[in-house]
User: Which sequence fits this backbone?
């Protein structure tokens, strides 16, 4: 019953082979069909597995370029996290390197962490040199990703450029510091209860007194306020007036313009004028040189003394003439009466008119 | 010759066990249970070590592994795809309903589902399904050989039944469990994506989000596939080899194979998950 060899009992195929009483062709076909089936299952599984690994490894057929972003604390950002611009995935975080502030990546910049981004080439033109890089979260579960605000600069950010990222807000730090502050405040209040109570009492008293003082002097304060208001109004008017007269006034401006013009004219003419004066002085000098001879000087003196005498005579003649004129003015003397007496003038006028009308009177007397 | 057939974890028939417990008393029965477990663990270990030994040193019969691959793998494809497809739908529908109560945001539904699937569900649920079908089959086949004394005949011929019976099943299971779980996981994900689209209006391209799956998840899932693929044939073969007492014994062996394989899967899941979380935190 039991066969001498293992295969008989351990292998169903061979057992079935016994059942088929040596139909070799059928057996071979069956064997081949099993192989094909097993191979197909394994192949399908392998394809899925390899595809999955490739997709998990961030397989992308888009060409990419690198951007280095420096952070002091990039929060919970992890390698492989997506890089999004305006919400669209445009790359991924390639590496996160801890520099520890030892390397100076740019002058005066020693970041703790450097993040290398792989950004798809198709968005290269959209990321400008003033772009912002920051870490933020998506969804309720808080998947962290790198966001790019493309910026509006004139230059495009080049490949392998190093930029400074905006550190995410540290809620934990905020809470820790807030807690510390609150703790200090609570402790301060708790340990200085009496002092605070005193301060409160004193403040209340002070306010009360102030209130009393204000109440008692209400009228005076109102008056002071009114006066102040008037004063300010007057000051305003004054200022406006002064401005009108002395700042905005066209007359003043004219004056200033004239002075300006004068000074410019003076500046312009002073050269020729000085030249003329120089020439005149030179001429004078020559004249005085000519006059300075001893004979000429004598003549000149003589002439001057003649002139003086002449002037004195003329003076006397003028005085005589003046006294004559005053006599005439007073109507004294014949000429005076003729000039100053209006009745005489009227008579003469009448006589002339009469003679005009009656020329015969020249010849004939009535 | 070996402990597998001479000592049994539960040597007395079910109706006699109450009498044994009455004789031993409470403390004695606890001790007996522990001894049984210790003996079972030692036998299981023995089968495992000998299987590993024969994997490298045994005589391979041509076509044996291929035949077992067909039996374990190819014939399980339809079964496991159908069960995992439905389980995928149920998981997404239920988790979607729960998520809807908290926040009506389904953008990360696919990502979390995929992470769970890769890390745990595909391997564990798929292996449990396989254990019911493959484990029962192995135990019944080997058990019936034991009760018809074919295994004794093998030993008489100086051939270790582990080498002839367990190793082909072990190798076939190792490869096919991984393949089946990969296919089943894909089916579960696709059915989940369809459910999300129909019930929660989540488009498949949003649902297929690999963001939360990392190398740790992948390695944990892969390790689980390997461990379950090894555990199912070892535990089932051990149950089959320790069969006794005719066709009823074969029935018992089948039941024990399914129960113990499932138990092994769940215990292994616990330890591998713990190790995964320790090695790949976050």
Assistant:
């Amino acid at each position: 019953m039991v066969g001498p060899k293992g295969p008989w009992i351990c292998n169903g195929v061979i057992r079935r082979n016994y059942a088929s009483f040596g139909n070799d062709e059928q057996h071979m076909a069956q064997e081949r069909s099993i192989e094909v089936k097993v191979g197909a299952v394994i192949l399908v599984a392998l394809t899925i597995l390899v595809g999955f690994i490739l997709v998990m490894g961030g397989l992308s057929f888009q060409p990419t370029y690198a951007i280095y972003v420096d952070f002091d604390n990039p929060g919970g950002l992890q390698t492989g996290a997506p890089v999004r611009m305006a919400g669209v995935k445009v790359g991924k975080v390639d590496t996160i390197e801890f520099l520890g502030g030892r390397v100076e990546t740019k002058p005066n910049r020693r970041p703790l962490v450097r993040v290398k981004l792989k950004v798809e080439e198709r968005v290269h033109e959209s990321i400008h040199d003033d772009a912002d890089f920051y870490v933020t979260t998506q969804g309720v579960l808080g998947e962290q990703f790198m966001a790019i605000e493309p910026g509006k600069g004139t230059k495009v950010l080049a490949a392998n450029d190093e930029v400074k990222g905006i550190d995410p807000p540290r809620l934990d730090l905020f809470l820790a510091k807030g807690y510390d502050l609150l703790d200090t405040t609570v402790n301060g209040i708790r340990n200085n209860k009496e002092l605070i109570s005193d301060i409160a009492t004193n403040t209340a008293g002070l306010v009360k007194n102030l209130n009393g003082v204000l109440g008692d002097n209400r009228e005076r304060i109102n008056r002071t306020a009114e006066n102040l208001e008037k004063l300010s109004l007057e000051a305003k008017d004054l200022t406006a007036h002064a401005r009108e007269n002395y700042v905005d006034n066209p007359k003043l401006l004219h004056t200033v313009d004239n002075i300006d013009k004068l000074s410019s004219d003076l500046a312009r003419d002073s050269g020729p004028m000085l030249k003329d004066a120089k020439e005149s002085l030179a001429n004078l000098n020559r004249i005085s040189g000519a006059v300075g001879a001893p004979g000429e000087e004598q003549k000149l003196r003589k002439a001057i003394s003649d002139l003086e005498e002449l002037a004195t005579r003329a003076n006397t003649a003028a005085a005589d003439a003046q006294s004559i004129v005053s006599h005439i003015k007073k109507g004294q003397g014949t000429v005076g009466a003729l000039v100053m007496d209006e009745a005489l003038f009227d008579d003469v006028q009448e006589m002339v008119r009469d003679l005009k009308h009656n020329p015969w009177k020249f010849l004939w007397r009535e | 010759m070996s402990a597998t057939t001479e000592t049994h974890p539960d040597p007395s028939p079910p109706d006699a066990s109450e009498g044994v417990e009455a004789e031993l008393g409470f403390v004695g029965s606890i001790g007996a249970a522990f001894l049984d477990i210790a003996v079972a663990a030692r036998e299981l270990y023995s089968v495992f070590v000998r299987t590993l030994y024969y994997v490298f040193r045994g005589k391979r019969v041509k076509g044996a592994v291929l035949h077992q691959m067909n039996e374990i793998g190819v014939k399980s494809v339809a079964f496991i795809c159908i069960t995992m497809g439905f389980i995928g739908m149920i998981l997404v529908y239920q988790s979607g309903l729960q998520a809807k109560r908290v926040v009506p945001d389904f953008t990360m539904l696919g990502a979390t589902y995929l992470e769970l699937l890769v890390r745990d569900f595909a391997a564990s649920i798929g292996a449990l399904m396989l254990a019911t079908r493959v484990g029962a089959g192995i135990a019944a086949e080997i058990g019936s050989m034991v009760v018809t004394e074919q295994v004794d005949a093998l030993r008489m011929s100086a051939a270790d039944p582990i080498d002839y019976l367990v190793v082909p099943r072990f190798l076939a299971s190792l490869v096919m469990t991984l393949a089946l779980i990969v296919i089943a996981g894909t089916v579960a994900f696709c059915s989940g994506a369809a459910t999300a689209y129909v019930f929660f209006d989540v488009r498949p391209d949003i649902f297929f989000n690999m963001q939360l799956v990392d190398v740790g998840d992948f390695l944990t899932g892969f390790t689980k596939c390997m461990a379950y693929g090894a555990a199912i044939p070892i535990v089932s073969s051990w149950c089959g080899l320790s069969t006794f007492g005719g066709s009823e014994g074969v029935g018992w062996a089948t039941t024990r194979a399914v129960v113990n394989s499932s138990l092994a899967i769940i215990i292994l899941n616990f330890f591998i998950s713990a190790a995964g979380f320790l090695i790949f935190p976050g």
In short: The two ends of chain B are 49 Å apart (CA to CA).
